[in-house]
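Review box. Two proteins, two foldings.
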Amino acid sequence: MNTPFSFQEVSFGDLPGWQEDDPRKLFPAMRTILSHLRTAKPYRTGALGLTAADLVSLLDMADQGQADSPEQARRFFETNCVPFKISPPGGKSGLVTAFYEPVIEVSSARDDTWRYPIYSRPPELVDIDDNNRPAGFDPSFAFGKEDEDGISFFPDRRAIDEGYLEGRGLEIAWAKSKVDLFFVHVQGAARLLFPDGEVKRITYAAKAGHPFSPIGRLLLDRGELDPKTVSMQTIRKWLADHPDEVDGVLWHNRSYIFFRLADVAELGMGPIAAAKVPLVAGRALAVDRLIHTFGFPFFIHAPSLTHLDEGKSFARLMLALDTGSAIVGPARGDIFTGSGLEAGELAGTVRNDADFYILLPHVAAERYRR
């Protein structure tokens, strides 16, 4: 296999913390993935070459089996999978961050308090691929604006904030905090809490197409934040302390996210993300979809990440169920911590070195042994 990273078969005994993990929560999610794949087109195959067909046999066995104890759950994977360690070039460690589903207060009508719109996808925003990509468009641009003159760049965050889409009936709801709404864009999903107590859910629908530019990096480069303590919380505090500079900092990230309403029937479950199934708090991982294929199990070991597991090093089996603009590379992941303020507090300080192991069903593992 010709890859720009190391891909090495290991044993389950080589997975630090494997014997203490309890992967039972993966089984309901695997059944949901199987149900989705039976009624929808297969997940896109990443550069690693793993296909949804490789995964189905494992999902079938999980659907038919039981996992009544942590030991039984681990034994299922030990029997049916082979772990492979994925390492970036040069043998470096991978990296994990975390994300969550915010809860944001909104109104269905605009007034002097509720001023910041949450937009649905505009009709002139079109997907771009190799068949319709205009000359001069970087391959990273997956969306553009189509009109009678052809396809061009869609307006960026600043242009949209300054009214480009105003008055077209694209508003899903109105928020009262521009900063809160910005972080909803970063997370890609949210629960909307209306004044009468009604709850709606939004999830990612599309983006304007411009590259994601992290504002934390901007503030670090300007010397405004300490690299040893930078987190979502310190970024938000800086924005609260510098209200006159908020627009300029937020507009540094030209990327803009559009949303759609999503089902909220099961508020105990996470949002439906890129893999089209609900995320599982603490067990769902966002990966680079250009390399990896959704649905595969990953074991993540992050020795310095301790606040998610009551002081113990993070060592969990997870499922690849989402992706993100900042999730780039073979050993790069984003851990879903759940919904609401507490989950946000957990997610905001995660930025840790980690080792990545992918569990391959035997049929796929045989290909990589050749």
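Next protein.
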Amino acid sequence: MEFYPSIERSDIQEIKRFQEHKLRELLVYLENNSPFYQRLFKSNDIRITDIRTLEDLRKIPVTTKNDLQQHNQDFFCIPGDKIVDYSTTSGTLGDPVTFGLSDNDLERLAYNEAISFACAGIRKGDVVQMITTIDKRFMAGLAYFLGLRKMGASVIRMGPGIPELQWDSIFRYRPKYLITVPSFLLKMIDYAEKHGLDYRNSGVYGAVCIGESIKNQDFTDNILAQKIKEKWDIQLFSTYASTEMSTAFTECAYQQGGHHHPELIITEILDDEGNPVQQGESGELTITTLGVEALPLLRFKTGDIVKAHYEPCRCGRNTMRLGPVIGRKQQMIKYKGTTLYPPAMNDILNDFNDISCYQIVIQSNEIGLDEIIIKLSTENRQENFVNEVRDHFRAKLRVSPKIEIVSFDVLSKAVHNPSHRKPITFIDLR
């Protein structure tokens, strides 16, 4: 069937040969079209004809998010008049990284989400409520819509937030599935209980959960998933993706990790020295995109620490499965579906002349999710100042952190600790 690719049920060696053929095609494409990779090949004396197998990939240096940020335009392989959509993702150095998509890239994105949603059990004719933004240059929301449309599902584009409107839509259109940040389901349940809504008989069967983990490493439900299911008996499916990958890893009905789609992406799990980890060990997910026209990536380090599972799944797929993200390289933060880095937050806070001192604190809340607290000192007594700062975060990074006003005397002593050579503007309490 169209959304159940046969390659995923092929044997491991056939999948490997298939990917190696796709890899050789990609290398020719990059050498002909990518200024960044043309330079990389030349400066490292790499002849692409020497790269024949997946193991040969190790002869090529990795690509980092810093590379993307510093040489963003050099990654583009097609002219501007072939770009039909612009998306952005946060960068390590503050400014967002731009991703352009061609018409074929949008079609690939739709195919990716269609086979991913089919993996989770969504079928033609199912009604699906999207509790996620589709605007603000956010690739994921567009991908969900395109994928659902491609597979023949009906889409309710509700956008995030406002439990009252979400419930109104659920009772009006009876969606079978929701696509949402899972912690928002707790807010929806809380609203339903306070307002006497019969949410358990709403007809919702399951939710595809984005941006936050709902599983432990052994695939049991984590605290967040347990809290949701204690109240509402629905299926929760994990999905993991990023703008850079343009590819999703989504769970099937057996919920034993997100399935790899070998026609769309090559994966490596690398240790701190850049070597492949042993099976069963965790490492940094490093990806090579297949079939991307505008901005393909070769050996891109995602920064996410994951563990891969290779035994065949009971669903019949033989592809590798990714477990939940274990952690982040350096100080990467996952906050409500967005990947963040402290320098990007520093830049926003430094935009405000009225902020005399600040400290960013990351901690885990009671349900195990990352929480961002911005402590700041200011002489600005206007009551809308905090909202102005929060709005700036929303505009630049698509997040809304908790903001606390602290007296300058107290905060400056914490930031400018005499026993530290540098100001302590970032604290990770996770």
